[in-house]
Amino acid sequence: MDRDRPALIMSGRKYLVSNFSIVVPIVFLGVMVLWPLGAVLQRSLSGVGVQRVVEIATRSSTRGILWFTFWQAALSTLLTLLIGLPIAHILARYRFVGRSMIRSIAVVPFVLPTVVVAAAFGSLFERTGVAGQRTVWAILGAHVFFNVAVVVRIVGGYWQGLDRSLEDAASVLGARPTQAFLRITLPRLVGVILGSGLLVFLFSFTSFGVILILGGPRRATLETEIYRYAISRLEFDVAAVLALIQLVIVVVLAMVSARFQRSYARGEGSRAKPRLLAVTGLRRRLHLGLVLGLTLVVIGLPLGSLIDRSLQVGDGYGLDNYSNLTEPVGLLPTSAIRALGISLEFAFVAACIAGLVGLAAAVGIVRGGRLGRVVEAASLVPLGVSAVTLGLGYLLAFTVMDFRRSIWLVPLAHEVMGLPFVLAAVVPALRSVDSRLRDAASALGASPTRIVATVEWPLIRKPLMTGAGFAAAISMGEFGATSFVSRGKDSFTAPLAIFRLLSQPGDLLRGQAIALSVVVGVIVAGIAATLERQRDGVTLL
Amino acid sequence: MSNLSVKDVSVDYGSARALDRVSLEVESGEVVAVIGPSGCGKSSLLRAIAGLEPLSAGSVVLGGKDLAGVPTHERDLGLMFQEHALFPHLSVGANVAFGLRMQRLDRASQSKRAEELLDLVGLGGFGDRGVDALSGGEAQRVALARALAPSPRLLMLDEPLGSLDRLLRQQLVAELRTVFVGLGVTALHVTHDQAEAFALADRVVVLREGEVVQSGPPAEIWREPKSEFVARFLGHPNLWNLDDKVVLVPIPAIRPLRIVEDVEEGIGWLRECSVIVERIEFREGRFRVTARSTTSVLCSLEVGPVTVVFDMGSQPQLGGRVLIEIVHDRLIVL
């Protein structure tokens, strides 16, 4: 018997269990990820014809879109690093009151739905921005807001693990603080900074909801163009070719990013236990205060502006925007409150399926073998590939039995997006089940089934719940794929309602959209905060 | 002139006091070892002197100048860490030359000096190597070379050999002593290993819970520990509770008088053996202990809860009877 493998796999009905753990996720991921991607590839490569592919890819409008997609992503990344690194630094090095709270707050934006963030920045720049330039700044601001958490968590976590005695050594050898930072600390951080920057670039490059809502008709990226061609103009060929370009770029970026992650994962981080510095002296206090202020402005201002705007009624304040949510609106197939109900239902269904499939997949992955690796790789695809590409894939693939019109497709698509998070939580927990625990239980007379019930299940239950919870949060806010596969009033989710309300002129509708954003944001942040607080649970980043 | 003078220095971590009004002096060219169990504040003392830890009270004076307000990088000190703290992204040579680079020495002088020091620690030609490939002993030698390169006014060593195995430690202690004497280095060395301290230092300071409890030359400290704590920490085996007092019986104070039962000659000599006490008498200013030897290795006899360790001189037969006497005027009442 293989000692390193969970009894869950090696139990008496081992073939049934192991086959189940491989077959279920493979069928699932095959249908929900690989098939639609295959459909996009097939349509763009053989369905369109090489000449037309080249023509679409090189036409000036495509080049313009590519250029904007790239530079907004690059600029977003730069700004995110500029703001995220100082925050990562104080969290990694200083001991101060509210440190863990700031750590948690910095992650809130990352879990918020894109439409909510877009609504927040829309309301922020509605009043403050310089007309004309403001759409771009709103987009960049939203991306920074979103991704600051990525830099803070990844770089900050690594930084905290860096042995501080090296800086002490440099200082004793005569290095001024700036010299010690530039010559000793920074060189060891370069890898992780580039790695996190690449991730931010990837997220900004594939950003959809933010640009669709804030960019208006003039600012388009690959993502929004895929959507426009597929949904508004029904030119699936062009959409598929753009998705192909997107796919190639994303795959290359993801591969480079994975390499970076491997290299800094091998580095020295997290070996030493963190020793935090007391904040003494005027300079340090000033520095800390400045960065904390920056953090609160970057994260608090958009949220505050969103809440403030949701309470504005005409020239005064009131709860009318919220009470209006129950009123039917001609523009929507259903009332906003009903859309919220649908979102909650879908979130529940998606979380359940993600939990079940995730559990099976986790067992399959831990069991190892080639198929396990296939499951692992396939389950990670939705993280990198954009939701829009997947959504387009569903439209192109599920023509059989008209599945693309089924309302089930929406929670299933959400489940696929949530699956990586379930796996991120469950797989390490399952791997960490110490084989000695199993041996001990077995020596005490526990049958394999009992081992599963008494040793393994209690250890993975919490991570499983956490992962499923994140899947629910993601489902609540999912916009990209939903915008492709939602049909009619029975699959009309809250993010779709927010988008629809925001894209129309009129103060009343806008107020409703923002009120609904606040409600969805509070729900999602509430889920995330609950999960984040579980000590041995798993965090999203 | 005293080179380093630490006066009434206190260090607090939050509400926990790590050092409590510690004072000590290090003369120029003197090697002082601070010993004490882990958590006694040894490292805090070095960090305080280096300016890496703020003082709650007291002063640190180096070469006649108060260091208050002088940032770490301007203190002109050397510090060797237990975990080497070599810079992983720099070569061995660049590590050694780091302090010189901070002094803005020109490149040629930098590399010349780095090579000199690598030669000194027996690592000539290691300059271009990466630090990852070094063994523990090599890494510690590089750390020494790096700390010495800028010719610091005071070299501080924080458990520099703690992570090495015993054999290597003994070897490096000898090398360190040679280097210190050769260069006339003024050094403050912190360790929990009293053997290391005794081998290396001109003077030993015993620290307990942030307070200096004794200080003096190694031989004196060993011979005349001033408290039970010091005696125990140094590893004195014979500490007896007699009449509510703790009495230290130095090993040379215990002499075997004779072997009661005959011993076969010619088996060889052993320094120590183990015995079981049968009777203790105090007569004419002498303890007379009758004991039975049990093994031929350690000579320890138990008096109630007390164990006696002494130098047997000749090897008794197993189970043989031993009479020892304890020279009364050499007992130390603590």
Task: Explain this structure.
The complex is a heterodimer of chains A (541) and B (334). With 541 residues, chain A is mainly α. Chain A has 2 domains: 1-39 and 318-541, MetI-like fold, CATH 1.10.3720.10; 48-304, MetI-like (MetI-like fold). In chain A, 77% of the residues lie in helices and 1% in strands. Chain A contains 24 helices and 4 strands. In chain A, the strands form 2 sheets. In chain A, strands 1-2 form a two-stranded parallel ribbon. A two-stranded antiparallel ribbon of chain A has the order 3-4. In chain A, helix 2 (14-47) packs across helix 13 (236-266) and helix 2 crosses helix 18 (387-397). The longest helix of chain A is centred in the N-terminal third of the chain and has 34 residues, at 14-47. The radius of gyration of chain A is 24 Å and the shape is globular. The two termini of chain A are 35 Å apart. The relative contact order of chain A is 0.14. Chain B is α+β, with helices and mostly antiparallel strands and 334 residues long. Chain B has 2 domains: 2-232, P-loop containing nucleotide triphosphate hydrolases (Rossmann fold); 240-333, no CATH class. Chain B is 25% helix and 34% strand. Chain B has 8 helices and 19 strands. In chain B, the strands form 5 sheets. In chain B, strands 6-7-8-3-9-10 form a 6-stranded mixed sheet, with helices on both faces. The longest helix of chain B is centred in the middle third of the chain and has 18 residues, at 166-183. Chain B is globular, with a radius of gyration of 25 Å. Chain B starts with a strand and ends with a strand. Residues 258-274 and 294-306 of chain B have low confidence and may be disordered. Chains A and B meet through helix 9 and helix 10 of A and strand 6 and helix 2 of B.
